[in-house]
């Protein structure tokens, strides 16, 4: 068995069942009668609930739509890859030589799945309260700020960096329309780069619409390369 | 406050916080400073975990893909509408007169959302173990059999295979009648094979009626052999 002392120390948690943690760390490429996919299935639901509940209390005035958006920004492959890396999870994963040589230990999907599986294993042997504490500590340590603004800001920054490098200019955000009564307004925003429209998005605020349009533009520009 | 005695009895659960259960039963059309959408967000994640964990233990040999499929067949609007109806949840929902006159109390989405919200409320005040017990009892009572086959069997496809093999033709579905006001329509459908009517069924949509009629016809044809 791998030396998981360091992992236990980082997590502040001592695994009870050696069999279970080995299963959680076993990628399907490592031919065994078990792998971590079932635990990943469970861990995924555990994390969805933990993060959902955390946001429910953290944002008592936010509606369901915003809670869902913030959760989607935290609970996804990128987010879990980040948490997995923060505990050096890659080191502990069992995988085949082929997968190893193929850079498996650094793959976002593999890291994210193993992270979910480890959380699923902790849930199984120690229950929701214990895994909640561990997961929330990791999330808070790895996200400076948890809010709609901060989690979505990245796309505008990313887009600006991209367009400056490629076109030597910053993107322009144009409000195309605003609709609806004051308490339920919607804004439609377009991103313009070099006089060409790259994307549009509709949001409850200009900021949200800008961020979503920026996200689409980033994806388009990355495809164009 | 509505008389929720009967609801409490059906659920086998006594609500601790009157404020919370009222929130869980309040549709957004009922103008209040609160509605059940945040609790629905929470309840949705609670049910995902409860059902996921239940299937994890019930099917120790099933892989993640099959567990996901079975869960998707249980955890959806139709599934939760069924559970909501089984506890007569519609009776207890607070909604606007307009929504009421529009048949809101019978709407699948409204019933399903309120069911999730009630489960979210029970989770909040009594924790995962209590809500798990209640939810699993309801699910087991309302699904005769929980398996990939039984949840996914498409009777129209089965019937078509049967009739093609036996009669060299495909069954015809004939709408015999549609009844009721728009928001509460019912369809009566007959299955005709070789000019002979084999079965009839009534459903909330043509599709549902067709599936049920097909199921009866399949059973009849299998008996005829």
From TrEMBL, chains A, B:
GO cellular component: cytoplasm
Species this protein is from: Sulfurimonas crateris
CDD domains: DSRM_RNAse_III_family, RIBOc
Cofactor(s), names only, from the UniProt record: Mg(2+)
EC code(s) of this entry: 3.1.26.3
Protein name per its UniProtKB record: Ribonuclease 3
Protein family according to the UniProt entry: Belongs to the ribonuclease III family.
Function summary: Digests double-stranded RNA. Involved in the processing of primary rRNA transcript to yield the immediate precursors to the large and small rRNAs (23S and 16S). Processes some mRNAs, and tRNAs when they are encoded in the rRNA operon. Processes pre-crRNA and tracrRNA of type II CRISPR loci if present in the organism.
Gene Ontology MF terms in the entry: double-stranded RNA binding; identical protein binding; metal ion binding; ribonuclease III activity; rRNA binding
InterPro entries assigned: dsRBD_dom, RNase_III, RNase_III_dom, RNase_III_sf
Domain of life: Bacteria
Primary location group: cytoplasm
Keyword Coiled coil tagged: no
Annotated TM spans: none
Binding-site positions, Mg(2+): 40, 113, 116
């Amino acid at each position: 068995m791998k030396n998981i002392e360091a992992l236990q120390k980082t997590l502040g948690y001592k695994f009870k069942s050696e069999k279970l943690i080995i299963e959680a760390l076993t990628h399907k490429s490592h031919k065994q009668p078990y792998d971590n996919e079932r635990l990943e299935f469970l861990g995924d639901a555990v994390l969805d609930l933990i993060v959902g509940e955390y946001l429910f209390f953290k944002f008592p005035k936010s509606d369901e739509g915003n809670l869902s958006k913030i959760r989607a920004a935290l609970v996804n492959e990128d987010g879990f890859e980040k948490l997995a890396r923060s505990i050096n999870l890659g080191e502990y994963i069992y995988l085949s030589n082929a997968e190893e040589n193929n850079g498996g230990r650094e793959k976002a999907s593999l890291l994210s799945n193993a992270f979910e599986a480890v959380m699923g294993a902790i849930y199984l042997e120690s229950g929701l309260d214990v895994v909640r504490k561990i997961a929330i500590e990791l999330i808070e340590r790895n996200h400076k700020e948890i809010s709609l603004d901060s989690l979505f800001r990245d796309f505008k920054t990313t887009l600006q960096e991209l367009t400056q490098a490629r076109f030597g200019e910053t993107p322009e955000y144009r409000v195309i329309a605003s609709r609806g009564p004051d308490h339920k307004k919607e804004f439609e925003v377009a991103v313009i780069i070099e006089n060409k429209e790259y994307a549009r998005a509709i949001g409850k605020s200009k900021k949200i619409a800008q961020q979503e349009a920026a996200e689409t533009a980033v994806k388009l520009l990355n495809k164009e390369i």
